[in-house]
Specification:
heterodimer; A: alpha/beta; Rossmann fold; 10 helices; globular; B: ABC transporter involved in vitamin B12 uptake, BtuC; 0% strand
């Protein structure tokens, strides 16, 4: 479905990612993990076309245009720090803005778009929040609204960049359960960036360990047994795998 | 004579009619930009550009040209300079505004002190006088304000997306840099129109105050813009009549009414919780 070939990113001559190559199949749930500064968010930004890179990202076919790509990707950004608590918009206004990627200028929204927004809010259990101001919702509710925005245009790939950083443990579990349901029932391919290897191991079907280059790419079981990872982590790898 | 009769009498005067037309269109232009500027933390750019317009008015008077005509391209250039300083020279946004704004005032003062002869005209632009707008200025205000409202309407969804989450807007295919430039360009146009109405000292308040008043009471984005427009138009019309009847400076009266709306909205918003 997506093939990343020899992808490299440099920030002021410092290599943030070095010749990354991997394949994502339809329906995969891939956890992207690694230490701080390992290039996880850089990889996401490159996949989204937000930063310049060398190498290739092939989505379905070579002929896929940038706008085709946008229509097929749903994105939930890192942290919620950008969210202004006084921002004057209802949850429904935010969710329906996820349709802009399917629209050409001047991006007029139709009744169908609003119906789609209400439908996805219902699926995520937040239909009752549609008229509430985004700033007055709890962290967990806000994150579900942003997840609904990422899903409203029915993307085939969902990219989540540390989506649960600001959430309490209960909201985090609920959030991961929702994403897993989307992956299993609607066959949405998921790329989840996280620091939390335990959660990624619990939900993801594959794990990509990054430290400016790919250290490991495979299933969680393979990750636990990998001699390369034992060498990389030393004894701490046992702790991570036991937690799972 | 009751108040309605007095208003009826006042409205017969051509200069009052001109003031109301120019003021209402100007108010709509300001309020359509204000919500985006306030939420994007660009509020002070109006203030900075207004200070630049003090210099451009001085240049216009020096050249014996229409100050507004000279000011539009120069203030637009200054607005792009602020953006460039912010993007390329790693100067913080507020510092870039401060730099350009003080430079504008300094140039204005130097031109006024060396050229002489038009100081009275120049200083009248500091505080504006909506009751003295000319036919040409009314037409210019109507055309430019309508253009601003139309462009904001066309770019409404792009502006909304960028204002809420710039990165996501970019992921959605919105040309963030282009839309930012359009927003700043429109602001510079509106600022130039505003200098005749409330003056360079107060023009930014016409952009900021209706927006922050509306933000206190409304929860949806579209309603915030509409309410800001209502606050702005009512403030301008009420300000014109109050200043006319009580012989007060019109620009300052308009701003005071805007401020009263803000206090009322703030109290209403706080009580509602």
């Amino acid at each position: 479905m997506v093939e990343v070939k020899s992808l490299s990113v440099k920030y002021n001559d410092i290599e943030a990612l070095s010749k990354i190559s991997f394949k994502i199949n339809a329906g995969d749930y891939i956890g992207i993990v690694g230490p701080n500064g390992s290039g996880k968010t850089t990889l996401v930004k490159a996949l989204l076309g937000l930063i310049p890179f060398t190498g290739k990202i092939i989505f379905q076919s070579e002929n896929f245009s940038e706008s085709d790509l946008r229509r097929h990707i749903g994105y939930l950004p890192q942290k919620m720090s950008f969210l202004d608590q006084r921002f004057p918009a209802t949850a429904k206004e935010i969710v329906v803005s996820g349709m802009y990627c399917r629209k050409k200028f001047p991006r007029r929204l139709t009744d169908k778009d609003y119906i789609a927004a209400e439908a996805i809010m219902k699926t995520l259990g937040i239909a009752n929040l549609k008229s509430r101001s985004i700033g007055r919702l709890s962290g967990g509710q806000q994150q579900r609204v942003l997840l609904a925005r990422a899903l409203v245009h029915s993307p085939s790939v969902l990219i989540l960049d540390e989506p649960t950083v600001a959430l309490d443990p209960q909201s985090r579990e609920t959030f991961y359960d929702t994403v897993q349901k989307l992956n299993k029932e609607k066959q949405v391919t998921v790329l989840l960036v996280s620091h939390d290897i335990a959660s990624v191991g619990k939900y993801a079907s594959k794990l990509l360990y990054l430290d400016r280059e790919i250290i490991f790419y495979g299933t969680f079981d393979e990750f636990c047994k990998s001699p390369k990872m034992s060498e990389y982590f030393g004894t701490s790898q046992h702790l991570i795998c036991h937690r799972h | 004579m009751d108040i309605f009769q007095q208003i009826h009498e006042a409205i017969k005067y051509l200069f009052v009619q001109r003031a109301i037309i120019a003021g209402c269109f100007m108010a709509l232009g300001c309020s359509s930009l204000g919500v985006f500027l306030v939420l994007r933390r660009f509020s002070l750019i109006g203030d900075g550009l207004a200070h630049v317009s003090f210099a451009t008015v001085a240049i216009g008077l020096l050249l014996r040209a229409q100050p507004m005509v000279v000011s539009i391209p120069l203030v637009a250039l200054a607005s792009f300079f602020i953006l460039k300083l912010n993007e390329k020279a790693a100067v913080y946004g507020d510092a870039a505004i401060g730099l350009v704004s003080s430079f504008g005032i300094a140039i204005g003062i130097i031109i006024a002190s060396t050229a002489g002869g038009f100081n009275v005209d120049l200083f009248s632009y500091l505080f504006g006088n909506i009751l003295s707008v000319s036919n040409f200025e009314v037409w210019m205000t109507v055309v430019i304000s309508l253009a601003v409202v139309l462009i904001v309407w066309l770019f409404y969804h792009d502006l909304f997306a960028i204002t809420f989450d710039e990165e996501y807007a970019q992921v959605s295919g919105i040309k963030v840099r282009l839309v930012n430039r359009i927003l700043i360009l429109l602001t510079s146009l509106i600022v130039v129109l505003g200098i005749k109405i409330v003056g360079t000292m107060l023009v930014s308040s016409l952009i900021i105050l209706p927006a922050i008043s509306a933000l206190q009471v409304v929860r949806s984005f579209r309603s915030t813009i509409i309410l800001a427009g209502v606050f702005a138009v009512v403030s301008v019309v009420a300000g014109i009549f109050i200043s006319y009847f009580l012989n007060l400076p019109s620009g300052a009266t308009i701003v005071m009414i805007n401020f009263i709306f803000f206090v009322g909205s703030f109290l209403y918003g706080r009580n509602r919780g």
